[in-house]
Amino acid sequence: MKNILITLLISFSAATMAASKIEIKNATIRLPPPGSNTTAMFMTIANNDNVDRALEKISGPISDDFELHEMAMENGKMSMRNVPKIALKKAETTTLKPGGLHVMIFNLKRPLQENEAVEVKLELDHQEKLSIKAIVKKDL
Amino acid sequence: MTKTILSTVALMAILIFSYLFTKKETEYNPFSLPLNTSKGVTTLSDLKKGKLTLMYFGFLTCPDACPTTLSTVGATFKEMTPAELEKINFLFVDLDPERDTLERLKEYAGYFHPKIISVSMPLKDLDPFTRFFGVVFMKVPLKNSKMGYTIDHSTGILVMSPDGKILPHIEHGTNKTVMLALLRKMLTEIK
């Protein structure tokens, strides 16, 4: 039953994205360890358009505080900074992954369950909005 | 002439001061410092006896490096025998005492592996402690972020022999297979 639901959700989100030239794949949220209500979301974003775009805002019912962040490693020291937007170059794929660009999620309103599909909305610089489902994973 | 004298005096002052400061640092002994841990109050001196001691420095709002490392460590420990684990300490030293509590640290670290001991100390102790082990951390304010501030920090796992000697650290991003091999090799070397 659960599998059918997930399949339905995935096909549903794929259907909503079909019209867009921005394609989101493998959206995952790290299952936060107990003691932490902060986590991160990762995904790959393909910009199949012939103009540069940018990801500007993320929102969703699980939190009021989504932010775009970037990590950098320098001399064995890890640093993280929030960024106002993530550039999506034309005809290129941008990867949000551990150790690099990612979406931070603060102050989770409820505990997340492993393998659940979480609703997330992405807002792009040209007013386009995309609704996707991100899967909660324990190990990323 | 006066200039030369002045610069000589200045140079001497610098030398004296740096001598005094270096002296102070070499006298610092982190091994006898009482550590507030998830397993009670202890010291590095007591912990390290006959064991390989690993230390990782992080914080609870760390979204990436810390959970990634602790998750790999947990997975590696699950592959090890109880006898091997008996010879290892793993300390998760908190770099954000202003925000984190030992209670939450314990819950967090225990999730990755029960073997992981959380350590919390006030900032005034954290400064010389991290400096002694060559660990860098820095509180950085974040504008326009709910986080308020973040902590930039070293991400390698520090390794210490039973006699307190610092061994080559385990680099960030080391996978389970490599970490397991490294730990087993180090365990045979300390025997």
Explain what you see.
The complex is a heterodimer of chains A (140) and B (191). Chain A has one helix spanning 2-17, and strands at residues 22-30, 39-47, 53-59, 65-74, 77-82, 86-88, 92-96, 101-106, 117-124, 129-137. Chain A is mainly beta. With 191 residues, chain B is of the alpha+beta class. Chain B is built from seven helices and nine strands; from the N terminus they run αββαβααβαβαββββα. In chain B, the strands form two sheets. Chain B has a seven-stranded mixed sheet with strand order 2-1-5-4-3-8-9. A two-stranded antiparallel sheet of chain B has the order 6-7. Chain B is globular. The termini of chain B are far apart. The mean pLDDT of chain B is 91. The A-B interface holds A 30, 33-36, 38-40, 65, 67, 69, 71, 73, 76-82, 84, 98-99, 102, 104, 106-107, 139-140 and B 60-61, 63-65, 67-68, 70-71, 75, 104-108, 111-112, 136, 140, 142-147, 150, 152-156, 171-173. Strand 5 of chain A pairs antiparallel with strand 7 of chain B.
Give the topology.
The complex is a heterodimer of chains A (140) and B (191).
Chain A: H1 2-17, E1 22-30, E2 39-47, E3 53-59, E4 65-74, E5 77-82, E6 86-88, E7 92-96, E8 101-106, E9 117-124, E10 129-137
Parallel strand pairs in A: 1-10
Antiparallel strand pairs in A: 1-2, 2-7, 2-8, 3-6, 3-9, 4-5, 4-8, 9-10
Chain B: H1 2-27, E1 35-37, E2 40-42, H2 44-48, E3 52-58, H3 65-79, H4 82-86, E4 88-94, H5 102-112, E5 116-120, H6 123-132, E6 137-141, E7 149-154, E8 157-160, E9 166-170, H7 176-190
Parallel strand pairs in B: 3-4, 4-5
Antiparallel strand pairs in B: 1-2, 1-5, 3-8, 6-7, 8-9
Helix pairs in contact in B: 3-7
